[in-house]
Amino acid sequence: MRLSHFEKLRPVCPVCRLSGQDNGLALTTVEAEAAGDVRMGILACQGCGSEFPIVDGMPIIVPEVRRFVQENLFYLLARNDLTPAVESLLGDAAGPGSGLESIRQHVSSYAWDHWGDQDPSPFAPVPGGGAPGAVARNLGEALDRLGDLPEGPVLDIGCAAGRTVTEAAERLGRDVVGIDLSVPLARIGRQAVVGGRIDYGLRRVGLVYDRRSYALRHGAGARGDVWLCDALALPFSAGTFALAIGMNVVDCMRDPRAGLVEVSRVLADEGRAVFSIPFDWAGQVTPVEAWLGGHSQRSGHAGSPEAILDLLLSEGPLAAGSLRRIGAVGEVPWHVRLHDRSCMYYSAYLVVARKAVG
Ligand SMILES: [Zn+2]
């Protein structure tokens, strides 16, 4: 956790936030720090006393720390210093469906999309012609449509391997905090954003991963950081951010409408939000009743996600806070590379909203 981000963003306790109180967090313990980056430490609420760990530079600021740690203990304690041959043997032995394998596949797909366009070594052509860097290109298209932003930092929700954090920091020249709930992705995202390197296994086939390790070219400097936070319980006061980014994340939330309301809360007046949404709903992530469309085709909206999102981003009873769509929506190509012979293709819905005043 960069001290500069902590001091400027002044995070508040997500436990107290649930009862509507903004109580600031204090950095009560620093056990490892280098160049203004706290690697290991503890944040504590000035009000209720809740404690939030900082592990490997990632502050974990979620309402239920105990549950988060229990569910993510394997990922928090997983080592990332295994050498290629030993990791390969452990990967074979752990087998498909293991925790190690789920880290490797997840990181392979996202690291390739986010940073594969800077890989100095060639890789096999992707079936269907997909090229890495789609998430950065799509964000660029969204940033072209922002108009005038108020003063303030940027929140990147579901920042994964961190490319959108650095793109926004470079392009807007503002501080950006990326948040995610995936420990392996936040770890690699932080390595990219703060450390300027990527080091991951690119899945070739089955349990075979080729190690990719290279320095990154990005000009984010000290403006980017990556934290572990929940989009549904953002540990920030109302009006903190000028811009919120949500690339391919809204349909990964437990409650997408509540997520949009949270975004509205933390935006400053006339702040902007950009979302890219493939509407790829999954029942184990989002309960069906919380999906935006994709069900109830008998009703007036005929199950259309686009129609429901439009209602959420318009004046009316369904409005998600004060977010209002501006400009036309777009469709952008996004894809997820699984291995040398498999890639999933999406057309994602790209929309820009502003926080209406009053
Ligand atoms: Zn508290």
From TrEMBL:
List the CDD domains hit by this protein, alphabetically: AdoMet_MTases
Q: Name one GO biological process term.
A: methylation
UniProt cross-references to Pfam families, sorted A to Z: Methyltransf_23
In its keyword annotation, does this UniProt entry include Nucleotidyltransferase? no
Molecular functions (GO terms): methyltransferase activity
Q: Which UniProt keywords apply?
A: Methyltransferase, Transferase
Statement: the UniProt record of this protein carries the keyword Protein biosynthesis: no
Protein name in the entry: SAM-dependent methyltransferase/uncharacterized protein YbaR (Trm112 family)
